[in-house]
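Re: the multi-chain job from yesterday

Posting the exact lines I submitted so nobody has to dig through the queue logs.
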Amino acid sequence: MTFIDKLASRWRRADSLLCVGLDPDPSRFPAHLRDRPDAIFAFCAAIADATAPYACAFKPQVAYFASARAEDQLESLIAHLRRHYPDIPVVLDAKRGDIGATAEHYAREAFERYGADAVTLSPYMGGDSIAPFMAYADRGLFVLCRTSNPGGDDLQMLDVGGERLYERLARLAAQRWNGSGQLGLVVGATYPAELARVRALVGDLPILVPGIGAQGGDVQASVLAGQTAGGTGMLINSSRAILYASTGEDFAEAAAGAAQRTRDEINRFRRR
Amino acid sequence: MTFIDKLASRWRRADSLLCVGLDPDPSRFPAHLRDRPDAIFAFCAAIADATAPYACAFKPQVAYFASARAEDQLESLIAHLRRHYPDIPVVLDAKRGDIGATAEHYAREAFERYGADAVTLSPYMGGDSIAPFMAYADRGLFVLCRTSNPGGDDLQMLDVGGERLYERLARLAAQRWNGSGQLGLVVGATYPAELARVRALVGDLPILVPGIGAQGGDVQASVLAGQTAGGTGMLINSSRAILYASTGEDFAEAAAGAAQRTRDEINRFRRR
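And the result, structure tokens for all chains:
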């Protein structure tokens, strides 16, 4: 089963567009976990177990594991997700971007070592920095398009022959780069008008939308702007607002509550 | 001592602009090393020991370690380099690009975990994806500007108000983004005219130049295009042509020979 099929099936069966972002920061873990040698794994697995019923995808962010010398815990976490939730796709948020043999090694890291269903990529080096990841023909690729930070304007909003750079990127990615048919884009929630513009350019391609919750993006505006005609097409990510809904012993129940509320709020604005 | 000072000092003392790229591919290691559990470390350390007299910098590429579950060997390698060659800067080639807390974790990975002197970064997310790395005020940052692959044209050659995107990037990086004064750029050797254009835009900023050797870039044209008035300003990278100069037991001597010849060829075209 391809990534796109797995994702579409999960959207439907879980009735959810919520992506649970796993950005583990040990300084915010509940005290009873903090001193365990596998604290990062234990925290993320507990969050995943509690939020799985409400999630269309999980998105571990590799930087949080790399800074803590915890690649082994990331391996264990993704193995746990695949064993217990084989229907929920795992998007490795790594924003890799390189060419040739180096890109092949990054693809091997994401898809063989970690066994992720999809990976995020940075497009500055162009189409041949995306292609090596398509050797894994069933895996998904989310290419950065329009990001939710103020500095995103520096390049993405430049005028390139009558359109913005992020619009050109969306067209390139959807048309020329999507050889495997498993490509999606990353578009932040903080600019709903631009999310609507990308949706108009890329048909039903999946769009990963960070920036709701702690980053201030508006759920209603994002769903109205980004959904497909069928009311799906998005992975709306929330990380900190779910992970740290409580920092006490009830962190997992609190995360489940926050995930359920976010999924339900998203669903209020979906086409049915 | 800042990265820029350390690099300038090394350029002068080693009389070299050659950066030795450490992209370890175990399938190309000599047979007597291949089965060692620390083969990647042993290979790279032997290459470094043999080529150090001719190197202005070492550049380990993190993808090769990540695909092999060998982050521990990357730690050991950089520790080895810092212990034995404290005057030679280590550039971690990671092409990270993210924002906020995530970028802080990537900076911690590069500068605290690995102890690198500098890291390569991807600019698509803009100036605030560079800024968190400048919290380490003495460390260097090399931002992708014009890359040596054909697909680099997809975005980098777009016309943005009368200049190319890579030219805009060079100006942004040199002027607005360089808060710490430790910034450099990555410009491939395959386009000497564009390397000359970047040099004209950025003054004496260091430029990391991949693409000679296996990628076909021309040493003479690159040096003439990229050097500063003082005959320095470049880290001209060679990886495969040095690492795999021989795949027999004499691999380290062969690497030393290739490094010396490359340094000398570069030096033939430098201003003195």
